Amino acid sequence: MNTEHSSVAARYAEAIMDLAQDLPGMATETILTNLVQVNKTIAETENLSKVLAHPSVSTGDKKRMLNELFADKINELAMRLLELMADKRRLALLLPLEEEYRKLLRTRQNIVSASLVAASQPADPLVESIKQKLSTKLGKHVEIDVKVDKSLIGGAILRLGDQVIDGSLKGKLASIEKIFVSV
To answer: Is residue 153 within 8 Å of 168, Cβ to Cβ?
Structure first.
């Protein structure tokens, strides 16, 4: 995603988040669910993304299409957002908007995402222990996405934001190789 799209999507995300926070209930989470649903529907419906992006299809026709597809499936605020984006010819930003909104919601909920890539599936107690230690250290709720990559040979790699802790055997061997090559 280019930075212009990302910054415009971030502005839309902040605006819709501010509006959703003023609504009762779990409106902020509902908006995210609605954005996921809209993007999934657009991706799974043949040619819909092409029609919504096509400049010769009028804004009115796009809004009618969106209303037919989503008016009874998403909340009113999300529907108004789609209509606004159609009016402003910004429907191509729906996927970046979802990503930016998710990031903003997680930040406001004090949630941090981490990635743990291991050579074999780690035991649940180990993952919970890592999660607990990170949560305590950061003072935030940590969610860990666990993946298995057998090419690591052994150990694991933990990614938290822009920090990477490489405890994999593959990483250790690569470090040793650099030392030998530099001699």
So the answer is: yes
Radius of gyration of the chain measured on its C-alpha atoms: 21
Q: What is the CATH number of domain 3-107?
A: 1.10.520.20
Q: Where in the chain is the domain with CATH 1.10.520.20?
A: 3-107
Enter the pTM of the model: 0.74
Residue-wise DSSP of 84-121: HHHHTT-GGGHHHHHHHHHHHHHHHTTEEEEEEEESSP
Distance of alpha carbon 97 from alpha carbon 159, whole angstroms: 24
Of 71, 65, 63, nearest in space to 88 by CA? 63
Q: Decide: 131 and 44 in contact? Cβ < 8 Å.
A: no
**Distance between CA 16 and CA 177 in Å, rounded?**
50
**Rounded-to-integer distance, Cα 103 and Cα 10, Å:** 9
Q: Give the number of other Cβ atoms within 10 Å of residue 95's Cβ.
A: 17
**Percent with pLDDT over 90 in the chain:** 77
